[in-house]
Amino acid sequence: MTLLIFFIAILNLYLGYALAVRLGSSVPRAELIAVAAVPPESVDGGDVAAGNEDDAADADVVDAAEVKESQPPAPHESAPVIPEDWSELLADTMLTDSFVEAAVHVLRLEVGDYRNALVALENRARQMWGHPDRDEMVSIVTALDKLNADWRAKQSDAATHLDANKGNLGPLMYLGDSIETVLIDQGGAIEAATRTLAGLELAGDLAVDYERLLDEFGALLDLAHSLRDMMLEMFMAIARSADKLDEIDDRATIDALTGLANRTGVEVVLHKWVCEDPERERAASAALLDIDAMGAINRRIGADPADHLLGELGQVIEGLTRQNRGYDVTARFAGQRYFVFFGDTGPRGAVHAVERMRQTLEASKVTGGDDELSLTVSAGVVEFTAAETTDDLIRRLLAALRSAKEQGGNQTFVDEGNGAELVTPPKLALPGRTIDLGG
Known about the structure:
This protein has helices spanning 2-22, 84-90, 99-126, 134-164, 173-198, 206-241, 263-276, 294-301, 303-319, 347-362, 390-406; strands spanning 32-34, 64-66, 284-291, 328-334, 337-343, 365-368, 371-374, 377-383, 412-415, 420-422, 434-436. By secondary structure, it is an alpha+beta fold.
């Protein structure tokens, strides 16, 4: 259900754009890559009500990129006033230049708070693993119901503010429409989860209800992750449309979990590379690495340990990247995906480096309490050619990664300009790492 909801959201983006073109709109369109189709860090993301056990982290990678041609700004009567409660939230954060940008920042902050509260409740639930307690489950369900109601109210307020100011959003009106659509769709999904929670009997065989409760935590976390990543993409789209990539606050380019660059940081690195080599004479390649079956891992160990694992994996991947090279950059792209940019390196050199990473992680083990997990990684590698934009690069990376996932995972595909092809891996016999999650 989660994937269906966001497919509908993306479809709405396309329909809205088509209508704007048909009417001869003069709105400048930022380039927007929607990542909502694959919820990173997901736990058994499927139909919220049915508790589908399909692993959302292994679902098809959808690279829905909408590249829109810039045009002169459309005139508008007056700038909308940012709501007072938004201004308070943004007081200690980055400055914003538009109402839509303020909405994006506010939703990023609020969905982060909502996710943190979800994780805290999930941790309480996981303390009952193997011995569910009825009173504690009732308490958790009650708290979760209130949390969801509060979050839906905040989403509704944001949608109302955007709708009320729709006529004054100027060149970013289409982004305001997109946010409003996503919030409405997310509200419906949260309502479905709330109905499922209300249907828990919490009597008799508590083990069944306990499993359903954990499933709903997973579905709700999927929604939070998707909204978080979509807001990051929209922030980047705004920065592109206003030619502000050189002005982005450094705080907006760092992933808090890993300390690596984030998706915005990736865009800044690529922008800088292109600006410093306008003739595109230098070789460059990039890679996306995706932890296989992350949904199953999440479901097994919980969101907090999974976050710890993602942080540790980021450090391992960065440690396997060449150091003291100005343009070899490791980033957390989204969820369980990591991006590596290889400056002054052709695709074959990048493939060798990625295979070192993939085979090192395959030989590694994850320990925590009585658990021991194994890891595998899928990867896509592409050459950044002189004729393509950064969006072209990302689309090809996603396509190469999708090929690796569709062919069973734990492998690398490379695209040197003629489509993605399977890499025959060299046997490197690399030592693995031990990642201790504690507990």
